[in-house]
Amino acid sequence: MSQTAERDPLVALRRDLHRRPEPAWREFYTTARIVEEIKRIGVDELHVGADAIAPERRSAVPDKKELDRWYAQAEDSLAEREGSDPAVLERLRGGTTGAVAVLERGEGPTIGLRVDIDALPREEADDEDHHPAAEGFRSIHDAMHACGHDAHATIGVGVLERIAESDFEGTFKLFFQPAEEVIGGGRAMAESGHLDDVDYLLAMHVGLDHPTGEIVAGIDDFLAVSHLNAEFRGESAHAGAAPNEGRNANQALATAVQNLYAIPRHADGGTRVNAGRIEGGSASNIVAEQASIQGEVRGETSELRDYMLDEAEDVIEHAAAMHDCESDVEIGPSAPSAKSDQALVDAVAAVAPDAAGVEHVVERAPLGGSEDATFLMREVQENGGLAAYVGVGTDHPGGHHTATFDVDEASLGIGVDVLADAVERIAELEPAK
Amino acid sequence: MSQTAERDPLVALRRDLHRRPEPAWREFYTTARIVEEIKRIGVDELHVGADAIAPERRSAVPDKKELDRWYAQAEDSLAEREGSDPAVLERLRGGTTGAVAVLERGEGPTIGLRVDIDALPREEADDEDHHPAAEGFRSIHDAMHACGHDAHATIGVGVLERIAESDFEGTFKLFFQPAEEVIGGGRAMAESGHLDDVDYLLAMHVGLDHPTGEIVAGIDDFLAVSHLNAEFRGESAHAGAAPNEGRNANQALATAVQNLYAIPRHADGGTRVNAGRIEGGSASNIVAEQASIQGEVRGETSELRDYMLDEAEDVIEHAAAMHDCESDVEIGPSAPSAKSDQALVDAVAAVAPDAAGVEHVVERAPLGGSEDATFLMREVQENGGLAAYVGVGTDHPGGHHTATFDVDEASLGIGVDVLADAVERIAELEPAK
Amino acid sequence: MSQTAERDPLVALRRDLHRRPEPAWREFYTTARIVEEIKRIGVDELHVGADAIAPERRSAVPDKKELDRWYAQAEDSLAEREGSDPAVLERLRGGTTGAVAVLERGEGPTIGLRVDIDALPREEADDEDHHPAAEGFRSIHDAMHACGHDAHATIGVGVLERIAESDFEGTFKLFFQPAEEVIGGGRAMAESGHLDDVDYLLAMHVGLDHPTGEIVAGIDDFLAVSHLNAEFRGESAHAGAAPNEGRNANQALATAVQNLYAIPRHADGGTRVNAGRIEGGSASNIVAEQASIQGEVRGETSELRDYMLDEAEDVIEHAAAMHDCESDVEIGPSAPSAKSDQALVDAVAAVAPDAAGVEHVVERAPLGGSEDATFLMREVQENGGLAAYVGVGTDHPGGHHTATFDVDEASLGIGVDVLADAVERIAELEPAK
Amino acid sequence: MSQTAERDPLVALRRDLHRRPEPAWREFYTTARIVEEIKRIGVDELHVGADAIAPERRSAVPDKKELDRWYAQAEDSLAEREGSDPAVLERLRGGTTGAVAVLERGEGPTIGLRVDIDALPREEADDEDHHPAAEGFRSIHDAMHACGHDAHATIGVGVLERIAESDFEGTFKLFFQPAEEVIGGGRAMAESGHLDDVDYLLAMHVGLDHPTGEIVAGIDDFLAVSHLNAEFRGESAHAGAAPNEGRNANQALATAVQNLYAIPRHADGGTRVNAGRIEGGSASNIVAEQASIQGEVRGETSELRDYMLDEAEDVIEHAAAMHDCESDVEIGPSAPSAKSDQALVDAVAAVAPDAAGVEHVVERAPLGGSEDATFLMREVQENGGLAAYVGVGTDHPGGHHTATFDVDEASLGIGVDVLADAVERIAELEPAK
């Protein structure tokens, strides 16, 4: 561990999480480590796992075998740590991850901060140019924190500690949300009941092409998104002796992929489509009897997203039928879009310039991507509260979701300061409801 | 274990092998079990693993991790068996599987029989209609004997025992060849040196749409075949925020698959192409940076196979370039075609009608598929010897390479009888060289 | 001809033009008819054909055979009209169509109005629901006014007449521009020299989903556009006897079309792609030796358009190479984007509400398509002048470019009134330069 | 005209036909010229046009406009010839082309010879290396004799003349069949009634990769074939302003073409597929509302052809549906396969070696393509007669159906001699029924 990490507990925590990235609903070690920090800080209420979320509202939960594998791995990792509490891990079993920490500090509004904690199922770069590799905290798992959620969790812990030590008056709730990358956890946390009394909610993200020292007070233009999984079922045959007896799922898949990307652009605004993960067949000399696509569609509005969904379903159905295969499309949950409320944007913009390290404050910027934080924002807004999504700039060498993504650790402290200051400033507002 | 299996050691052996199918170069348990049988029978020479093949001529050997996994599994399985010899397994480490058993019985020609022993990396059917499932010997591994090589190995053992107990005069060599399904073992065994003195060689296959009771004295029309593996390398990007920054390996793959199957038919004869196993990308919201195809091409002649190879390479190269990806094509080894020599066909046809259970003898029939036994046949033929490929009919519910393939165990004994009788009849021929 | 047409010379002119639609650079009859009207009105200067444009700056001019065919057809049509002047037609020979009419009315700024006059190469609907069919002025040519340029030319004539009869002081120039649909005429007219002294320029379009009675004072968000023509050259062969000897241009085309539509969406904004017209091969039993695509790409900015162009060229090159074909891509001219200047938007917005029939005035709206009027607008703006693009609402049953498109003739008078009033109002502005 | 042509009336006739190639059912000039020759020779019966065929059994007849265009062109061409009979042309109007000439010469069997006379809708090469271009008889029409039917018609005339001048006893019928290239005329001629009394039928083809001087006494292995035309109907839209409102027929077509060529190979034998002629859409900026494929499938047996047809229909239906388009598939007529009868093969093989110019006689060879002569052969064979298909070698620079195809005119005389000799030899056989 480098000098920086030794000196700075935030950096140390971030590196520990970075080294043990866990994808959606498998954040066993991650949640346990966060809970360890929460307990160290001391809070008035702590909800862990099934108590932090509405488990029946989870989406995209992996199968038991996969959950068990990651659970066992987390168990091993935690066994190496002194003083870790096996009871915490036990509450996460079956993929009910995440936590909600509550500080009750007298009269005043209830203010929430939501951070997400999951990693992506991809490999991390392993060359000397890649800081985590050079510094020895590259992922040791089959996954990677390629979107900065390790920094998010760390900043959450930092803000919790700052508020705990401050004169803040009111109630402060920190939401450590699992499974953002699969649009799987936002709804489950939004409907957990813990948002019911929240007057003001902030959510946050690092990077997004904003450099270290830049703060975006309010991010908008979330693309509505839906995941979709397609399954093609054909029939195998010997590829040499009986090619015509097969019903080729790989041909169905290839036809579908080509035509998914070719769904017509829409006059009403931006759309997206991705066949991100594909696989099919078993061996070179067997006609493939099965193939699958894990993909997604997005739109600048929910209508545009629905347009893409409808077209995608048509493509998949007929690509399968063309090759005499059956198909199933499973539509994942959709995250809606949301807007940052001006009063909160103003509060962030007011405090940000005074935070150490902040060089530039942008009032509003578009996301151009999707986020299931919108479930929590909408939950608060529909209850009469206000919400905003804050961008914390960080220099990142590779793009989000790529093997060389990394966060500039200098932005951890900036994020903590700006968000804690903003929470304190917002506490001066009248309760929203 | 059923009554039949209890009574009949051949059936018992076949079921044991069927239950523990091992794909190419991973036939650790399989080889060890065969060697156990060979030792029980007693032979004059026994070459195991690296001594049975030319290890440097192996093709399509899996990586160390994969080999180690199957090795460990075989170790576990053998540990359960009484009296298994750990030294045998040790000689197979690193994927040098297979065995050659030699009986020296005085003056006379040297006669070989080649059987293959590997399984396919596919799942086996699991319903009551499927005999191995109903009888409890369905595969317990991640693979399946979907082409009857469990029966081949068993028949090989049976013939060895029959010859050992007979009045046969001459030298008899039994070649238990690994890695046929990946065209990986034929050349390695052909160039092992053990074929150098073989005058007459028989190879054999069960099924091929010939029913139980039917024998094909000489099979011809082997399709020349080459495996090819294509790798596409692009660049990942966030599918929502920066779709244009990716270089999409999945799009390259889909374009390639569509166009591989669309390679023009050839006026000179039949061709085949299969993109049997495909995979690409890592998650639904990441533009895929990597994708791969495991495929193959075949042709009625080597020229036709080469035509398909050339076209396939063009398709892959330009499908990649179109999507700004790099590509590599790795061409696997090719198996040539071969002809069954008339003198041996005559010998088989002469003895077959008298074997118990044989109802019908076909003199010649086409294979319409590929086989790397052709390497061994050509080796013998080019040295001035003769070779033939014999078909042993068996009722099989599903097609070769499909989940419901199975062999009629009544054909095991028929195969042993016909082949042993043929070997004895061939021993009466003058040495070929 | 209906009562309306008899009574209203604008309606009669529009129907005459509608009945004889002529695509880009073939507006022989159309130009001659417009010139007839200009002469009837009487102007101070009249530039026809090669004098109205910079002929060497034309793009997408058809071949001589095609020009000659339409020229002969126009000759026949004009021969039926009394008093038409053969000398006018003669000046258009070779595809130098279009006209510029100039009214010089003393001191004051020079104000231009640009209208386009070409039709589309598509068939027109022929059922009773389609007004031109019901009223007997459906196209008699192999083309259709499916974008309302018949109305544009008519409104241009109407405005010229109104200004000629008014107290207008200054110079008024009416630009009847050919070949908008192929982005072929805008540059040629912009660089004709006739724009050099123009202080203020208006351009206009009917419809665009704005209903009759609605005026858009300033239209923006023109998509940058480039046409591209791809040619694939392979080699023919007998499809039955020698399929492998062909190099199939139709397969190259199909691969290209699939992948053109699948060019990744771009994070920076909207893009478009269309393979609008395709053809290839000659007969069902011949492997196609030639195929071609007439297509286009667009982008919200020129950079986005260039991104699409680059990707499209890659797709075409490698789709051809994959099938061993040669390819050529010919990039048509690109039209840039443009902005409507506020001073002119204000002028239009000021007069529009008082025009008869106007029910609603929208200050600004996006086009979401492309227009080569942007060449003329930019020419004026870069010289220090101002320009705006005005939308004249019209109820249209089918979308633009479809078989059932039609304009509500009530909008002809509205367009004339609003634009003439705007010209008079703009004349009160100081000269821009 | 060269010296050769002046000296040799067969060469002159072939060049005249070559210069005026006419595709299926448009052989107006061709039939009229042939009839002129028949009348010059003098026959006992002559059936022209609707009398020579069963008009209601014609397939793939073009529309009236197309027929009228070629008819008018033929009229013009014939007007230039002295002594041509307008009454003949009149009988062909509407696309009832072809002729049957009958010589009745006493007792003896009825022997038929069938030749086809249509050209292909493709362009001819125009460089000095191409003999017809160099010698001035290159096609002056929008078509080309790219399969040698000009030579077939010429040889037919030559044989008729030879038999007319010979001692032949029996009845000789010469069938000049139209529309072979579209599989359109074979059935119509087979069911005309003129075959009913034919004992022995010969058909013939030049070239097929057999050089000048080579004769194939019996050709076999005709591929069964079916033409199929697919029509895709979508909906047009402005490609820039409303891409999502279109239903893109060009995308449907591209998906179909890719997947047609990718129909799996069949274990039972050779298959073919070709999307020979495609077209779609109208302009670069309009989403295509219509597209079409003229294609064909073939198989070594009728079952294999039917397999291809079924798969092709599936592909087209679902490619359309995937893009929300409607589709129609029109299946053209199918030609069956046929076998050459040994007695006739023997007769040809017996006389061929003695014919001047013959250097090599092959008894049997495969066609590897399709032919609707099989309709006539089957008609005769099913009535108890015999039939054979004879190959007359000719050096041809380019492949059949390509722009540089040509016949070596030295083979015209060889063909006449061999076939006339064969007819005389066959006349010595007993009547078949």
TrEMBL record, chains A, B, C, D:
It holds the Pfam family M20_dimer. Gene3D superfamilies: Zn peptidases. The Mn(2+) ion enhances activity. Residues 229-320 form the Peptidase M20 dimerisation domain. Mn(2+) binds at residues 147, 149, 181, 205, 401. One of its GO terms (cellular component) is cytoplasm. The keyword GTP-binding does not apply. Keywords: Manganese, Metal-binding. GO terms for molecular function: dipeptidase activity; metal ion binding; para-aminobenzoyl-glutamate hydrolase activity. Its cofactor is Mn(2+). The keyword Disulfide bond does not apply. GO terms for biological process: folic acid catabolic process. This is M20 family metallo-hydrolase. It comes from Natronoarchaeum mannanilyticum. The lineage of its organism: Archaea, Methanobacteriati, Methanobacteriota, Stenosarchaea group, Halobacteria.
